[in-house]
TrEMBL record:
Gene name of the record: dinB
GO MF, one annotated term: DNA-directed DNA polymerase activity
Family affiliation: Belongs to the DNA polymerase type-Y family.
PANTHER family cross-referenced by the UniProt entry: DNA POLYMERASE KAPPA, DNA REPAIR POLYMERASE UMUC / TRANSFERASE FAMILY MEMBER
InterPro entries: DNA/RNA_pol_sf, DNA_pol_Y-fam_lit_finger_sf, DNA_pol_Y-fam_little_finger, DNA_polymerase-Y, DNApol_IV, IMS_HHH_1, Rev_trsase/Diguanyl_cyclase, UmuC
Organism the protein comes from: Pedobacter segetis
Name by which UniProt lists this protein: DNA polymerase IV
Amino acid sequence: MIDAAEDKPNRKIIHIDMDAFYASVEQRDFPEFRGKALAVGGSPDGRGVVATASYEARKFGVKSAMSSKTALQLCPHLLFTKPRFEAYKEVSLKIREIFNRYTDLIEPLSLDEAYLDVSDDKMGIGSAIDIAKAIKEAIKKELNLTASAGVSVNKFIAKIASDMNKPDGLTFIGPSKIIPFIEALPVEKFFGVGKVTALKMKNLGLFYGSDLKKLSENEMQKHFGKTGRFFYQIVRGFDDRPVNANRISKSIGAEDTFENDIDNLIVLKKELEKLSSIVYDRLTSKNKEGKTLTLKVKFNDFSQITRSHTFLNYITDKKTIFETAVELLEKLDLEEKKVRLLGVTLSNFYNEENDIITFRQLNLFEDLDI
């Protein structure tokens, strides 16, 4: 197979990722937090989880989704502040306005990151690197925040590139560099490879992209299922996924694979509390409300089950997410079973239902020949 980086016309893709977004907004707005180790989310009494940590806190190992208790053990002088999602949404809209100066092909992934296709940029600049520089400068000048950018010919490489020189970085990986870059990339750096998949790859002797490239497509699918084909394509530079300006989230969730299997219901409930907090924060940050909550449980024998509950009304609070997840867990037969992974997901969003209603109305109008 010919490597795609040398075989197809090149697009100009930018991935913009704000630097420690929530924490940076708090440090910008409140002078007492500037230069300090700060956690957004969680609390000094050890309850809850960290949503985002400032770079001063990250130096001590504090990171997103970490329990407050662990964060305090790593950084005893850590400061905590409650998330202000309305403030973050307002800033995110302003960032989006800056993006719109250069292109209409914008695919937001969250409040603080997005893909941009600038193959045909509005301002006629031509150079994706220059556009990325202009966006970064505008964000810094107008919003007093920093962003990192990755520039390449596809989404996969652009996303990895944006994380390479944080904070305030800009990394370009051109067509001629893509194949050697991917071949030298550790498997855990591949987007979509979590801790469990990375461990499985390493147990198979697969440590770098060059190792993955030795496997046939059938072998990749045998070991990694449906995602095996994606890895097979990516390691050869193929990523034709478009920047989708109308991207809609179908679900929002969080899951965690435990270092040690758990057979204690009290401990499992504590893990569900952490996951529920993460899911709630992600829902709030994306301004989503869902009706269907799904619990995912994977056991130490790698068997897996899911259980769901659909509400009449939309879920809008953390307590309901947690209590429903616990209720679903308690209905399971966990006797003599050890849990390897827990996951909580919310779906059936308000916007999706509106889309279905609109679609039905359009079909009705067509049937009536209006």
